[in-house]
Amino acid sequence: MANSLNTITVDGKTYDYEEYMKTQGVKAxxxxxxxxxxxxxFLSLLVTQMQYQDPLxxxxxxxxxxxxxxxxxxxxxxxxxxxxADVYSLVENIDSSVLVGQLSGMIGKECQWTNKVDGxxxxxxxxxxxxxxxxxxxxxxxxxxxxxGTEMTTKVDISAITRVGESV
Length: 168
Prior knowledge:
This protein is 38% helix and 31% strand. The protein has helices at residues 17-23, 39-51, 61-104, and strands at 7-10, 13-16, 110-117, 120-134, 137-145, 151-157, 161-165.
């Protein structure tokens, strides 16, 4: 028989887990597919296993220790994963702060950018008046003079900028 982690006991009879699932109408391709097993589910399984063990043939203490070690490792991996997510968020915030600082240094300078209009690239020129980050995407705010002399403000994605300088 497979090790005790791959068995299931029903009505006092112990079955191989995969064989039991097949008898219950579960396809072989579905056996082993499961949602994420979190630490609470793991502990619940361990407690249930202890509760329903055969008192005349108890599990070996070594198996319990191995399962507790697995539980401890799972807990530690979960904590590491949570901390890595925190570090990732912190790095993203630092990157955004550095980018805003760099973009802020361009305020007051002239810039050129290219946008696609009706499938053709059109180059625009204007003066950078501000910086914006919307939904994590950095952009600049530029003031553009229209042909009739009126000024209008537009938001420009930084990937569209082709030149920045005192006079472009």
